[in-house]
Specification:
With 61 residues, the protein is an all-alpha fold. The protein has one domain. Helices cover 74% and strands 0% of the residues. The longest helix has 23 residues.
């Protein structure tokens, strides 16, 4: 296993453990913030929507 892959695996594992802890111990608080996170997600989706490849699906040669 390469060093970069090991660091990525370690970071993902740490995030999963922290997420489980937050949901288990502070579930009421985390779920209380969920509507605000959904409202924050809306402008972010509008900001990043359509900024992918600009070919428009047309066959340019």
């Amino acid at each position: 296993m390469t060093r970069n892959r090991a660091l990525t695996l370690m970071a993902v594992s740490l995030l999963l453990i922290a997420g489980f802890y937050l949901l288990r111990e502070h579930g009421g608080h985390v779920l209380g913030v969920a509507p605000y996170l959904l409202l924050l997600l809306c402008p972010l989706l509008h900001l990043f929507h359509g900024h992918g490849p600009k070919d428009g699906g047309h066959g340019h040669s």
